[in-house]
Amino acid sequence: MSCSGEIVEKEPELIQIKPSIAKQLKKAKYGVSDHSTVELCHWTKKSFRNEGSCYKHKFYGISTHRCMEFSPAGMHCENRCVYCWRPMEFYDSMKMDENKVAEPKDIMSKLMEERRKLIVGHFGDPKQDKQKIEESLTPSHYAISLSGEPTMYPKLPELIKYLKSLDSTKSIFLVTNGQEPEMIQRLAD
Predict the structure, then answer these.
(1) Residue 2 maps to a domain
(2) Is residue 4 part of a domain?
(3) Which of 55, 70, 126, 164 is the least buried, fewest Cβ under 10 Å from its Cβ?
(4) Residue 120 pLDDT greater than 80, yes or no
(5) Does residue 18 carry a pLDDT above 80?
């Protein structure tokens, strides 16, 4: 209740990656925000040094240094596959409540800032291509493929629509285990 006697509805708390896990992820050079993660992949860093590009450049013409790898469902997966190369001990949820997830625009705003923090340190290395680093601050390609199953994020269609609305966007890749067929259908609609 507010001071004026009005009933004020409290915003639901957003799903958060556990602080101990977020700390470990940050130490491993991930950016973390609420339930989402971002990382500079191996190929992005190599591209900054003009030492190569990933398969997406070779097959699709995507500028490796302008590709943003992230997940709106970091550390969330409906499986605990023994052969998965992702750290299962970090996964703490099998479901994402739609009322407790961040909005697509908020996710991207926060992850872009986290990504910027991961990028700016590269300006100090004289072996890095400064123009590529500068260009990388505005991604044009999005790989929704980091730790976690992105189709568990209940607002994924809205997130992809938001990314498509950005002037700089050229492509969006979605990597999924395919075990959320309802979400795949929603994406197809």
Answers:
(1) no
(2) no
(3) 126
(4) yes
(5) yes
The backbone torsions φ and ψ at residue 42, rounded to the nearest 5 degrees and listed phi first, read -50, -40
Main-chain dihedrals φ then ψ at residue 106, nearest 5 degrees: -65, -40
Give the pLDDT of residue 11: 63
For residue 95, being part of any structural domain is answered with yes
Count of CB atoms situated within 10 Å of the CB of 22: 19
Domain that holds residue 25: 19-188
DSSP letters of 34-62? Answer: TTEEEE--HHHHHHHTTS---HHHHHH--
Can you tell me whether residue 189 is helix, strand or coil? coil
Query: How far is CA 36 from each of CA 10, 31, 42, 127, 153, rounded to the nearest angstrom?
Result: 23, 8, 19, 31, 10
Instruction: Count CB-CB contacts under 10 A for residue 161.
Output: 11
DSSP string, 112-171: HHHHHHHHHGGGG-TTS-HHHHHHHTS-SEEEE-SSS-GGGSTTHHHHHHHHHHSTT--E
pLDDT band at 92 (very low <50, low <70, confident <90, very high): low
Averaged pLDDT for residues 102-125: 97
**For residue 165, what pLDDT is reported?**
98
- What would the mean pLDDT of 136-149 be, rounded to a whole number? 93
With respect to residue 11, please indicate whether it lies within any of the assigned structural domains.
no
Q: Please choose, from the candidates 99, 91, 104, the residue with its C-alpha nearest in 3D space to the C-alpha of residue 166.
A: 104
